[in-house]
């Protein structure tokens, strides 16, 4: 009789260690806040692709709640559902109950990753190398940058492409190689130093968040960011000791490592004494604005993390709201452009008008709004590597809409989205018709030559 009276949740806590971890970590308030209305369903790309309830935000929350309540065991299918989610967070602005779905997903993934007996030794080693040894170590990132730069400049890249040697590699590596940006062995600080005065009267002093991958694969975008900011009246400092934002860690179940990186960044930017912390990558910015939540259980860092989060702003928002905008000209007779939102910039930082306003200010361009521009492109951090099938399906639909705009330039605000768009353009044979460009590079290209 005693056994019969025992609740299923108590029973599962004792038999399934993953269930116990999920029950501990999943926020019960967020789980119960979901009233199952389904308003989030039309916003969800994985639901749009499959039409399956379990592939929707409401379905995933129901699965988490069933595990938290002890009425379901977290089996392989449960884990797969959590991994199929893009983490694009389009469900959040659509939700009338303000359910913090992103937090639930991170809590679920964190519990799953803690429960790593199922990982092969190869997976464990590569996760350890990427998350703990590479991204948080800017020296190693630069070493990767230098190796790529050597590959690109030594003639090896040309040889690999012309000889067909690339065909020996897996398909996704061939695709990535085709869209590899020009790598740099030197980060932005080595290239231009740490402090840059405003042109004209100073509006504010801001700090640039340079990013880890951005600093070696998109160094010119960072340089252009500094040019735009100083031109618009901001003094720019680039704190040298800043580190990776931790977004890939937080989204992949490495919450403790993400917290450690956050503490380092909070300290460094607090010491810089600036009025804004500027991000030019939606993926990074979205975690930076949530450092307050990431460190909310840490009494030592809680207050400074709140200060940090409140001071982070995307470059487009800063330029539009506080900057002295330069004139942007277009040399070509006419040019048609379109824009793919960065999910995290739009859904977490809630910035979608500012980039559109900025690009429309370039004289001589015609802006064509793309259908479903607010829908994820399938890049989603490393989703296109871990879930290539779904990412490919989403990208195919995206490229149909891109093609319909007949744009010559496709703009984005995040390096991951930019690479995914470049990949889509290659894959769909649109290389001769259009190019994908970061909005910062586009604006910089259209500044008056004397101002660069
Ligand atoms: S984060 Fe994106 S993919 Fe995941 S449930 Fe929400 S809308 Fe769907
Ligand atoms: S919109 Fe919000 S409350 Fe409604 S089902 Fe989706 S997550 Fe739940």
From TrEMBL:
Enzyme Commission number(s) of this protein: 1.1.99.14
The entry's keywords: 4Fe-4S, Electron transport, Iron, Iron-sulfur, Metal-binding, Repeat, Transport
InterPro entries recorded: 4Fe4S_Fe-S-bd, 4Fe4S_Fe_S_CS, Cys_rich_dom, Glc_ox_4Fe-4S, Helical_ferredxn
Needed cofactors: [4Fe-4S] cluster
Domain 4Fe-4S ferredoxin-type: 22-54, 76-99
Cofactor detail note: Binds 2 [4Fe-4S] clusters.
Domain of life according to the entry: Bacteria
Catalytic reactions on record: glycolate + A = glyoxylate + AH2; (R)-lactate + A = pyruvate + AH2
Protein name (record): Glycolate oxidase iron-sulfur subunit
Function field: Component of a complex that catalyzes the oxidation of glycolate to glyoxylate.
SUPFAM superfamilies: 4Fe-4S ferredoxins
Organism taxonomic ancestry: Bacteria, Bacillati, Bacillota, Bacilli, Bacillales
Sample GO molecular function, one term: metal ion binding
